[in-house]
From TrEMBL:
One of its GO terms (molecular function) is glutarate-semialdehyde dehydrogenase (NADP+) activity. One of its GO terms (biological process) is gamma-aminobutyric acid catabolic process. Residues 14-472 form the Aldehyde dehydrogenase domain. PANTHER family: SUCCINATE-SEMIALDEHYDE DEHYDROGENASE, MITOCHONDRIAL. The keyword Cell wall biogenesis/degradation does not apply. It comes from the Bacteria. The keyword Transport does not apply. Keywords: Oxidoreductase. The active site is at 251. It is an enzyme of class 1 (oxidoreductase). Belongs to the aldehyde dehydrogenase family. It holds the Pfam family Aldedh. It comes from Streptomyces luteogriseus. This is Succinate-semialdehyde dehydrogenase/glutarate-semialdehyde dehydrogenase.
Length: 479
C-alpha cells in the first residue's frame, strides 16, 4: 500500500485536492480504513478537464503506431505486476486473490486488444451514385471523454474504457468509484510509465460525484461519456448529457435469466451456474439473477447447486483456500439480506445459506432458494450478491415470456442439448449477449453490452473503438 498513489492525477502530475479534502478507502473484510485518498471537488474536475482539452489536439495527431505501442507496453507492465495489482484489488473490494489475478489478466488483455485495433482505424474512397462527387470517408477521435467506472471490476472496467480511448486518440478524465480508487490510480501510474503523454489521462477520485461530473457534462467541452454502473445513475447522466449533446455509452444494470431445459446436461448447467452466479461474489451485472429450471429437473438441479454452493469457503480474500470474499460494504450486504428475507416470507425454501455470519466485515454466505414466488422483490432487482433464486417452468413459450418480462436486457444463459432449441430460444431472448451452455460471456474480443434499460453501445471487440470515433465525409468533385 505504501507505493500506491493516493493523490489526484492531473496533467501528468500527482496533486492533492484543491481544498485538501481526503476520503477513506475501506477494507470490506474488516471494515477498517486501508488509507485515505484525495477527494476531488469541482475545481479539481475543471483542472482535469482543462488538461484533457489542452492535450487533445496533439494526441489526436499522434501516429496510430505510437498509441499502439504505449498500450502494448502498459499491457506488459500490468502482467509483470499481477500479484501487486491483485493484492491491491482484493484489499479495496474484497474478491479472493485467485479471482483478482484473473481480473488482472482480463484487464491487461483490453490494452493488448486495443493496441492492435489502434492501427486498424480505416476510412474509404468511392464515387457517389450520381457520378459528380467522390466520397472520402475518414475517422477521427470524438474528443475529450469522461469515463466513469464501477467498484466491482475496478481494474478491468478502467482498461475497457481507457484502451479504446487511447487507441482512437481521445483524451480522458477518469472518475473511479469511491470504494475502489486505488486500482485506477495504480493504472494511471502504469500508463505514465508506459509513455502516455501528460494530460491524455487524468484521474479524479471523489466522494462528490455530482459536484464533479455534472458541470463537465453540461459544459460542452467533454464530448463523450462512457459509464458503467446502475441504470438509475445512468438515466441521470443521460439527462445531464442532453444539454450539450454529449455522445454516450452506457453499460447499465442486468437481471439475467438462467434457463435450464429438461434435456440439459445438469453437470454443465451446475458448472455454468457456479460461474454465472458466483463470479465476483455475485457482484456483477452479468450475474445470473433468475434461475428458470424445468419442473422435471428442478429438484435435482437445486440439490446439486446447493451442494456446490455450500462447499464454498467464505472469508477474507487474502486467506488461502477462500472462494468467496466479502461484499463491497454494509449497505450492499443489507440489500441482499432484505431480498432473501422477502423471498422467504413469500414461501421460498432455503436450500443452503441465508444467514448473515457474525463478526467483522461484510460477508454473506452462498445461498440457494427454491420455490421462489415470482412476486418476490429479488425477481425484479439486481441482487448483486451470492444468492441463486430458483423458479420452475413447464414449456418453452412460458419461460421465454417470463425471462423477457423485465426492463433489463444485458445477458441471458441457456442450457439445452438441442441445437434447434438453443438457437430458437437465444434469438427470442431480449438481451445483448447469450451464454449457451456456458456461464461466462465476457471477453475483450467480444462486443459487451445490452438492450432495453441495460445500456447503449458496446465495449470491447472490433466495435469497441467505434464508440470513440466520428466519421467525416469529404465531397470531392469528379473533374
Amino acid at each position: 500500500m505504501t507505493d500506491t498513489p493516493t493523490q489526484l492525477f492531473i496533467g501528468g502530475a500527482w496533486v492533492d485536492a484543491a481544498d485538501g479534502a481526503t476520503m477513506p478507502v475501506d477494507d470490506p473484510a474488516t471494515g477498517e480504513a486501508l488509507c485515505h485518498v484525495a477527494d476531488a471537488g469541482m475545481k479539481d474536475a475543471k483542472l482535469a478537464e482543462e488538461a484533457a482539452v489542452q492535450a487533445q489536439e496533439a494526441w489526436a495527431r499522434t501516429a496510430p503506431r505510437v498509441r499502439s505501442e504505449i498500450l502494448r507496453r502498459a499491457y506488459e507492465i500490468i502482467l509483470e505486476r499481477t500479484d501487486e495489482l491483485a493484492h491491491l484489488m482484493t484489499a479495496e473490494m474484497g474478491k479472493p486473490l485467485a479471482e483478482a489475478r484473473g481480473e488482472v489478466a482480463y484487464a491487461a488483455e483490453f490494452f493488448r486488444w486495443f493496441s492492435e485495433e489502434a492501427v486498424r482505424i480505416d476510412g474509404g474512397l468511392t464515387t457517389l451514385p450520381d457520378g459528380r462527387n467522390r466520397m472520402l470517408l475518414s475517422r477521427r477521435p470524438v474528443g475529450p471523454c469522461l469515463l466513469i467506472t464501477p467498484w466491482n471490476f475496478p481494474l478491468a472496467m478502467g482498461t475497457r474504457k481507457i484502451g479504446p480511448a487511447v487507441a482512437a486518440g481521445c483524451t480522458m478524465v477518469l472518475k473511479p468509484a469511491p470504494q475502489t480508487p486505488l486500482s485506477s490510480l495504480a493504472l494511471a501510474a502504469i500508463l505514465k510509465e508506459a509513455g502516455l503523454p501528460d494530460g491524455v489521462l487524468n484521474v479524479v477520485t471523489t466522494s462528490r460525484a455530482g459536484e464533479v461530473c455534472e458541470p463537465l457534462l453540461r459544459g460542452g467541452r467533454i464530448r463523450k461519456l462512457s459509464f458503467t454502473g446502475s441504470t438509475a445513475v445512468g438515466q441521470l447522466l443521460l439527462a445531464q448529457s442532453a444539454e450539450a449533446v454529449v455522445r454516450t455509452s452506457m453499460e447499465l444494470g442486468g437481471n439475467a435469466p438462467f434457463v435450464v431445459f429438461e434435456d440439459a446436461d445438469l453437470d454443465k448447467a451446475v458448472d455454468g451456474a457456479m460461474v454465472a452466479k458466483m463470479r465476483n461474489m455475485g457482484e456483477a451485472c452479468t450475474a445470473a439473477n433468475r434461475f428458470f429450471v424445468h419442473r422435471s429437473v428442478a429438484q435435482e438441479f437445486g440439490r446439486r447447486l446447493a451442494e456446490r454452493m455450500g462447499a464454498l469457503v467464505v472469508g477474507p480474500g487474502t486467506r488461502d483456500g477462500v472462494d468467496v470474499g466479502p461484499l463491497i460494504d454494509r449497505r450492499g450486504r443489507a440489500k441482499v439480506e432484505e431480498l432473501v428475507a422477502d423471498a422467504v416470507e413469500r414461501g421460498a425454501q432455503v436450500l443452503v445459506g441465508g444467514r448473515t455470519p457474525e463478526g467483522p466485515g461484510c460477508f454473506y454466505p452462498p445461498t440457494v432458494l427454491a420455490d421462489v414466488d415470482p412476486g418476490s422483490r429479488l425477481m425484479d432487482t439486481e441482487i448483486f450478491g451470492p444468492v441463486a433464486a430458483i423458479l420452475t417452468f413447464d414449456d418453452e413459450d412460458e419461460v421465454i415470456r417470463r425471462a423477457n418480462d423485465t426492463p433489463w436486457g444485458l445477458v441471458g444463459y441457456v442450457f439445452t442439448e438441442g441445437l434447434d432449441r438453443a438457437l430458437r430460444v437465444s434469438e427470442r431472448l431480449e438481451v445483448g449477449m447469450v451464454g449457451l451452455n456456458t456461464g461466462l460471456v465476457s471477453n475483450p474480443a467480444a462486443p459487451f453490452g445490452g438492450v432495453k434499460q441495460s445500456g447503449l453501445g458496446r465495449e470491447g471487440g472490433r466495435v469497441g473503438i467505434d464508440e470513440f470515433l466520428e466519421y467525416q465525409y469529404l465531397a470531392v468533385p469528379v473533374s
